[in-house]
Structures are given as C-alpha cells and as structure tokens.
Specification:
By secondary structure, the protein is an alpha/beta fold. The protein folds into two domains: 108 residues, Signal recognition particle alu RNA binding heterodimer, srp9/1 (2-Layer Sandwich); 91 residues, Signal recognition particle alu RNA binding heterodimer, srp9/1 (2-Layer Sandwich), CATH 3.30.720. It has seven helices and eight strands. A four-stranded mixed beta sheet has the order 1-4-3-2, with helices on one face. A hairpin with a 7-residue loop joins strand 6 and strand 7. It starts with 15 loop residues before the first helix and ends in a 15-residue tail after the last helix.
C-alpha cells in the first residue's frame, strides 16, 4: 500500500504564534514546583481537541526502511507482534489488544530511509527482567540490559534495536527482582545460544544530573511572576501578525 499522497519534507514557514504558545508553556513548566502550581497555572488549551475517532485504528507512526524483509520478519516472527495490515510494501503492527499501532514501509528507489535515531519505540511492561531474558533467548541482542533509569529510581530501562536500527526501550518496575533466579535463567540462555552472559548490575550513568536546584530555580517567585508568561503571550498575539517573528521574554516585575 503505497502512500501516494505524501510529499517530502521541505523548508516551510513556522507560524510564530505556535512558538510563542510553546514558550509560555515551557516557562510555566520551569516555574511550577508543586502540584498546586500546576493546577493553578496550567491553562486550558487555546482550542479543544479536534478529532473524533473512527472504530478502526486511532493512531499510527510510520517509518521507512532499506531492508523491509528483515524488519517485518523481526517484528512478526521474533517479537511476535500481531499484524493489523500487511502487503508487500506496507506493514502495520499492533498489540494483542490493539493498544498501539505503528507501520513500516520500504523506502522507494528515490527515497531515503528513516534515520535510525529519528524515533524510538518505548513500551512499559511487567516482569521486565523475565521479558528481557525471553527476548535474548529468541536471539535479540540488548544494547542496554535492564538497569535503573536513575539513581534510586524504581524504574528500570533496557533497550535493543530493530534490524533497521530503530531503538526499542522497555521500561518496567523490576527493582526488587530476585537476582539469583534471573542469573539462573540467563545461564540457561547462554548455554543454549552460546552467547556471553550480560551483567545485571551496570553502573548508573554518572553524567545524569539530578540536581534538585534546577527544579526549584523559580521557587521564590510570586504567582504574579509565574503568570507573566501567559500575560506576555496574550499581548503579543493580540498585536502581532503571522508574518513577523514574535519575540518572547517573560516580564520582569522586580
């Protein structure tokens, strides 16, 4: 199923109003430090949600690959993803209960495939370690074995790549898993696959910056200061046109 109506991306004008809206939202995110701040400051969207869902699939992300056969074989026969649509030049995958959809298409002769690091597929799963062990048994090579997402974090993350190189991240809450049982499972996988064992305790990324001061740099600002971004946005949008760039600066009431 070719996407006959798609056109390649080109340089196009970005409406400056979009950027002004986004900068105001980001400003609020930087200033809000409590749930009350969020409830008080996070304004409703300027416009309501416009879509009414059909009874079929509701959302899908598509990417292009150079080796279509390898990609569809990986998803169907190694990962076991159900197929929602399939033909020689289009594959749409989902989950057993249809919670998500994404599709893979072969890049045509005059097209470039999607850069591998352009997107990542991320799934939140239960029994993360057992899932990783099973995938390794099937021949999946992990780029990162499940490990804490941050210091003292209850979340763990592991990752591997598709044949095209698209990253797949598995998230889960497996911090208190019985490591002895998992070690035994990995030894069995190693014996059957002839592959080296993988450390279950990789070091946490030392470059991660969890300095709480960054989250509270506006903690002493008054509510009026926090709301300044929205006030500036309203003034700029009422005076500016779409053809000129809107300069966004939070008001300084000091």
């Amino acid at each position: 199923m070719l996407n006959l109506f798609q056109k390649p991306a080109a340089n196009f004008h970005v409406n400056p109003r979009f950027r002004a809206y986004g900068k105001a939202r980001i400003d609020i995110a930087q200033r809000a430090t409590t749930r009350d701040d969020w409830d008080r400051l996070l304004m409703k969207s300027t416009f309501p949600f416009p879509f009414s869902w059909d009874r079929s699939w509701k959302q899908c992300v598509e990417y292009k690959v150079a080796d279509y056969a390898a990609e569809v074989g990986f998803f169907i026969d190694i990962l076991g993803f159900p197929v929602n649509a399939f033909d020689p030049d289009y594959a749409m995958f989902t989950s057993p209960n249809g919670e998500f959809f994404f599709s893979v298409v072969p890049a045509q002769a005059d097209e470039e495939s999607t850069p591998p690091d352009a997107i990542r597929l991320q799934f939140m799963v239960v029994k993360l370690i057992e899932t990783a062990v099973e995938l390794q048994r099937r021949g999946v090579v992990f780029e990162q074995w499940p490990a804490p997402a941050g210091e003292n974090s209850p979340l763990q993350i592991g990752s591997f790549r598709t044949p095209h190189g698209i990253g797949i991240d598995l998230w889960g809450l497996d911090a208190n898993r019985d490591r002895i049982e998992v070690d035994q499972q990995l030894e069995q996988v190693e014996e059957s696959n002839g592959s080296p064992s993988v450390s279950l305790n990789p070091a946490v990324d030392e470059g991660r910056d969890d300095d709480e001061s960054q989250l509270n740099i506006f903690a002493d600002d008054s509510p009026g200061d926090i709301l300044s971004s929205a006030d500036v946005l309203v003034e700029q949008l009422s005076d500016g046109g779409e053809s000129s760039e809107i300069e966004y600066e939070p008001e300084d009431e000091s």
